[in-house]
Structures are given as structure tokens and as C-alpha cells.
Design brief:
This protein is of the alpha+beta class and 257 residues long. It has a single domain, classed as B-lactam Antibiotic, Isopenicillin N Synthase, Chain (Jelly Rolls, Sandwich). Helices cover 21% and strands 25% of the residues.
């Protein structure tokens, strides 16, 4: 199939934008209504836009009628509490699908590697239309934390690690990458995540915000990386045996969020 994609993402699959430097009142994310939803660790989500304007996080394809991750309906009770976050999500001028704030509890590098997943943004997306990608705005000061991106889930040589100080903004093809966040803080991390449709509006926004497709990757001790790889395979095998004991054959490890 042929989709409209952003040239800025063609080479590396991501861009880091100029940071958002204006202060945002933490009440804009702390006072939102959250629901439980699994992602890269112990997480909750506060949706700002959903399939029909309800406070829920399900994929648009799981509703009736099903559709791809586009044309999200803004939730008035949430956006009224978070006007700045809503503006940030709408700033690119591209079509918005799901939009939500994630709350992530502290975890380990091994946890993050085990929880690497690919998003399913483009299920039901029609041929010839814009490819859906994700925008991230880090809301809390998580200078020691990092977004981990892997082209190959099991190959650390394909791993890129992007630092997450407050105000960091990125656009990532999260259906291309296996990804998760290693959150090294002592308190929860909060980030705004928005599904955006590729096209001229998104291209212009990336250009205006000086999108960098070659950001510096955080360096880690190779021994730590190797330990996490061993733990990844141990946990996968443990999970396989648990399912096997129940007579369940595990499917390929693709997580859909």
C-alpha cells in the first residue's frame, strides 16, 4: 500500500523538535481523569481526545464503526483542565487521532527492554492517505530518563536512546520502532502523546520547529545492556512456559497500544 509520509522521517523514523520552553501549570496533567491502560511499564492514561469523546483509550478500530487512528473527538471535561496541552497537540495543524497524557511509574532498563512494543497506528488506514505517527511532549523534568527506540526488538545494536528533559518534543513513527521509556526518576513521569496524520501540515510544522533526525543517543554501559538482554530472554521464556502450562501457544511478541 502507498501512504503519504513525511520526508523528514524517511531516513531515521524520528525527529527531535525545538523544545517547548514556556512553563505549563502541572495541574494541567495532575488534575485530569486517568484510566488504567498498559504501555511500557506501570502506566495510566488521561485521554484528551478519543474515538467518541469519552474518557477511554481503546483503539478506534475496536469501536463501531471501526476506523483508523484519525479524527479524534476532543473531551471537553479534560481539555478545559488542560488548555495548554490541547494547544500543543493541535499546534502542528495535522489531523489528530488519539491524544492523551501518560503517567509512567519509575522502572528499570531491563523493564523497559522487556516492554518494548510497536504501535498499531495505521490499522484500517486507507491507501493513499496520510501515515499516522506519534508526537511526544515530555512534561516533567526527567533528565535521567530516556525514550528507547529499536528497529529490531532483540538487537541492541539498533537501539537509540533519546533524553527526556522537560519540554522535549519529538515526532516518531512508532509503528516502525519497538519503543519504551526507561524512567529513572523517583516520581511519575508525564508526557503528552498525540497521533498525527502525515501530510503537508505536519511537514511544515517539523520544518518550522527545526526537526533533527540525528539527535545524540545516550550512552550506556555495555554490561548493563547485556544484562538487560539476558533478562529479556529469561522473562520471555518464563512467560512462554506459563502460557504453555495453560495450553496456550504464544503468538509473535507484538504489543498493540
Amino acid at each position: 500500500m502507498s501512504f503519504i509520509t513525511s520526508p523528514a522521517l524517511a531516513e531515521t523514523g524520528y525527529v527531535v523538535l525545538a523544545p517547548h520552553t514556556s512553563p505549563i501549570d502541572p495541574a494541567e496533567w495532575l488534575d485530569l481523569d486517568y484510566v488504567g491502560w498498559r504501555s511500557s511499564g506501570v502506566t495510566r492514561f488521561a485521554p484528551l481526545a478519543s474515538y467518541a469523546g469519552d474518557i477511554e483509550c481503546n483503539g478506534f478500530w475496536n469501536h463501531t464503526p471501526p476506523r483508523t487512528d484519525k479524527d479524534g473527538v476532543w473531551i471537553a471535561s479534560q481539555t478545559e483542565k488542560a488548555p495548554t496541552l490541547t494547544r500543543l497537540a493541535q499546534e502542528p495543524g495535522a489531523n489528530v487521532g488519539r491524544c492523551r497524557v501518560i503517567e509512567l511509574q519509575p522502572n528499570s532498563y531491563a523493564d523497559a527492554i522487556y516492554n518494548l512494543h510497536q504501535d498499531d497506528n495505521n490499522r484500517l488506514n486507507e491507501d493513499g492517505t496520510g501515515w499516522v505517527v506519534r508526537s511526544f511532549v515530555n512534561l516533567t523534568e526527567d533528565t535521567e530518563s530516556m525514550l528507547i527506540l529499536r528497529e529490531d526488538r532483540f538487537d541492541p545494536a539498533t537501539e537509540l536512546r533519546l533524553a527526556l528533559p522537560a519540554g522535549t518534543r519529538m515526532i516518531v513513527d512508532t509503528q516502525r520502532f519497538w519503543h519504551a521509556v526507561w524512567h529513572r526518576g523517583a516520581t511519575p513521569r508525564y508526557s503528552l502523546i498525540t497521533s498525527l496524520t502525515s501530510g503537508p501540515e505536519l511537514d511544515a510544522y517539523i520544518s518550522a520547529q527545526h526537526g533533527d533526525p540525528h539527535a545524540e543517543s545516550v550512552t550506556l554501559d555495555p554490561a548493563l545492556v547485556e544484562e538487560a538482554q539476558v533478562e529479556l530472554h529469561r522473562r520471555i521464556e518464563e512467560r512462554r512456559r506459563a502460557f504453555e502450562a495453560q495450553g496456550i501457544v504464544m503468538e509473535p511478541p507484538v504489543e498493540l497500544y
